[in-house]
């Protein structure tokens, strides 16, 4: 027997029906929430209501449908700021395509004035790793790649003065958290720098980690927090003073002359338009608002760490298996000395179990720093149940036994 189970754990949760995932088949087991979470029915209903009841433009019209759009979009901005404990006097929320797009939109428009260094870390997703590489090249300044500690923290004394620092709050590799995030923010600001957070992996289960942090900008992906495919940026209003807005278009201006224009963002009420060129994805924005409300209720009955703990214990008892996690998190990465990760993922797929295999858009760290072979990643969501865990263990014992 490849695996040895010391005890059978039977943590039970609310059944799938009634939680928003009643459409799921018991034979479909989804362990790829770090890529994108499944959507509860409440989110799909909110989006459908937009398309069938008030499908129109926002911030451009005076008729009833448009005013309904404005109301729901404003509610989503408010819900997002509230979730992150950001004062609307100090921050605003804008919407974009995804975390990658948001990071690039902000970094590509930073003025060079006062920026002497760019800093990131080794466990970053390519969205951070590549965008900071691009920023350093554009500004012709040095770039430092910090080594994250096993607990996810960084050594703040390694951050140079006047740096743009971009770090993930939670790793998409193994769920490692930037537990000293408040210390990082303080150190960066004391030295005249800018602190930007990649919160893509934090918002679904660890939003309390980033809530209330003194960041300059935070980028997130709605599709990783039970919402539709959408990105959002929560930005400190003062950061606009350090940006030169060059990505311009409809919805951003109050007036245009032959060789000049007046930005709508100069009006405090429309400051979010500074980072929202063109027509916005209103159904998706409304869906995100519904997702935040749903998530607040659903997370009260959250057994996800019980389930991940069972999976980690099971894998660690397996012959030839190596689990990257130093702590129990919702995201688990592992490899086996004998079995190729892609073939293992295919075998699991044949049994209806969906996992991710490869280097998870973290090539620098996984392939070149650690020199790991391709890995298998299990990332859990609020749709998962004890039966999913039991099935994974049963199938793994057959496949790898």
Key phrases:
Aspartate Aminotransferase, domain 1, 401 residues, single chain, seven-stranded mixed β-sheet, Aspartate Aminotransferase, domain 2, alpha/beta
CATH class type of the largest domain: Alpha Beta
Q: Could you tell me how far the N terminus lies from the C terminus, measured between alpha carbons in angstroms?
A: 6 Å
Number of helices: 11
Strand arrangement in the largest pleated sheet: 2-8-7-6-5-3-4
Total discrete domains:
2
Biggest sheet, open or closed, and with what strands and sense?
Answer: 7 strands, mixed
Q: What would CATH call the architecture of the largest domain? A: 3-Layer(aba) Sandwich
- Net shape: globular
Indicate the mean pLDDT.
Answer: 94
Structural class: alpha/beta
The CATH topology of the largest domain turns out to be: Aspartate Aminotransferase, domain 2
Radius of gyration from the alpha-carbon trace, in angstroms? 22 Å
- Estimate the helix proportion, in percent: 25-40%
Approximately how much beta-strand content do the residues carry?
A: 15-25%
- Note the run of SSEs as H and E: EHHEHEHEEHEHEEEEHHEEHEEHEH
Task: Explain what the structure shows.
Helices cover about 35% and strands about 15% of the residues. The protein has two domains: about 30-40 and about 300-400, Aspartate Aminotransferase, domain 1 (Alpha-Beta Complex), CATH 3.90.1150.10; about 55-295, Type I PLP-dependent aspartate aminotransferase-like (Major domain) (Aspartate Aminotransferase, domain 2, 3-Layer(aba) Sandwich). The chain is α/β, with parallel strands linked by helices and about 400 residues long. The termini are close together. It has a seven-stranded mixed sheet with strand order 2-8-7-6-5-3-4, sandwiched between helices. A four-stranded antiparallel sheet has the order 11-12-15-14, covered by helices on one side. The protein has a two-stranded parallel ribbon with strand order 1-13. The radius of gyration is 22 Å and the shape is globular. It has helices spanning about 40-55, 65-85, 100-105, 125-140, 180-190, 205-210, 280-300, 305-315, 340-350, 365-370, 385-400, and strands at about 30, 90-95, 115-120, 145, 165-170, 195-200, 215-220, 230-235, 255, 260-265, 320-325, 330-335, 355, 355-360, 375-380.
């Amino acid at each position: 027997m490849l695996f040895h189970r010391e005890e059978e754990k039977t943590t039970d949760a609310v059944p799938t029906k009634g939680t928003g995932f009643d459409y799921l088949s018991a034979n479909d087991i989804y362990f790829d929430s770090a890529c994108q979470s499944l959507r509860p029915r409440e989110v799909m209903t909110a989006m459908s209501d937009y398309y069938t009841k008030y499908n129109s433009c926002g911030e451009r019209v005076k008729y009833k449908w448009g005013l309904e759009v404005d109301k729901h979009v404003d509610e989503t901005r408010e819900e997002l700021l509230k979730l992150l404990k950001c004062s609307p006097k100090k921050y605003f929320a804008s919407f974009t395509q995804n975390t990658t797009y948001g990071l690039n939109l902000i970094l590509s428009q930073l003025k060079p004035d006062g920026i002497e260094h760019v800093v990131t870390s080794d466990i970053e997703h390519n969205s951070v790793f590549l965008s900071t590489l691009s920023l350093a090249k554009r500004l012709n300044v040095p770039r430092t790649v910090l080594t994250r500690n096993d607990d996810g923290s960084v050594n703040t004394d390694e951050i140079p003065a006047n740096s743009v620092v971009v770090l993930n709050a939670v790793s998409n590799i193994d769920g490692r958290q930037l537990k000293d995030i408040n210390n990082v923010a303080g150190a960066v600001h004391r030295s005249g720098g800018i602190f930007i957070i990649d919160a893509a992996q934090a918002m679904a289960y660890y939003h309390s980690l980033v809530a209330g942090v003194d960041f300059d900008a935070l980028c997130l992906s709605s599709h990783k927090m039970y919402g539709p495919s959408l990105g959002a940026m929560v930005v400190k209003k003062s950061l606009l003073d350090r940006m030169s807005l060059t990505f311009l278009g409809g919805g951003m201006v109050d007036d245009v002359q032959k060789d000049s224009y007046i930005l709508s963002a100069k009006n405090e009420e429309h400051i979010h338009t500074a980072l929202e060129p063109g027509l916005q994805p209103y159904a998706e924005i409304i869906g995100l608002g519904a997702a935040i409300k749903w998530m607040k209720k659903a997370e009260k009955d959250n057994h996800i760490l019980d389930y991940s703990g069972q999976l980690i214990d099971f894998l660690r008892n397996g012959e030839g298996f190596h689990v990257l996690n130093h702590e129990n998190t919702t995201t688990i990465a592992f490899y086996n000395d004998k079995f190729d990760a892609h073939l293992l993922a295919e075998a699991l797929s044949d049994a209806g179990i969906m996992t991710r295999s490869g280097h998870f858009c973290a090539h620098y760290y996984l392939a070149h720093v650690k020199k790991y072979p391709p890995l298998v990643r299990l990332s859990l969501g609020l749709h998962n149940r004890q039966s999913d865990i039991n099935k994974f263990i049963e199938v793994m014992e057959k496949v790898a036994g």
